[in-house]
């Protein structure tokens, strides 16, 4: 996915790049570094599309990330 499209989807989701990175437990610089080659990895693109679509459908994506966080301690 082109980085510009990724940025659009994240913005449409109501998130900043920093907030998106925090949800994924990533450093925001790791996300913005994808801008250098102009595209994001498929795994990041899928997440951006899913949360954007969920936002369009009026669904809250935050509980999903909370469930994932619950597994970190196991």
Observed structural traits:
5 helices, 74 residues, globular, mainly alpha
- Provide the gyration radius in Å: 12 Å
Major sheet details: none
Work out the helicity level. 55-70%
Q: What is the number of E strands?
A: 0
Q: Kindly report how far apart the N and C termini lie.
A: 33 Å
Task: Estimate the global geometry from the Cα principal axes.
Answer: globular
Mean pLDDT: 94
What percent of residues are in strands?
under 5%
The residue ranges in which pLDDT falls below 50 over 5 or more consecutive positions are: none
The overall number of domains is: 1
In DSSP terms, counting alpha (H) and pi (I) runs of 4 or more, how many helices?
5
**Can you write the helix and strand succession as a string?**
HHHHH
* SSE-based structural type: mainly alpha
Describe this structure in words.
- This protein is mainly alpha-helical.
- It has one domain (3-71).
- 64% of the residues lie in helices and 0% in strands.
- It has helices at 3-12, 17-23, 28-32, 42-56, 62-71.
- α1 runs parallel beside α4 (42-56).
- The protein is globular, with a radius of gyration of 12 Å.
- 16% of the residues are buried.
- The model has no long low-confidence stretch (mean pLDDT 94).
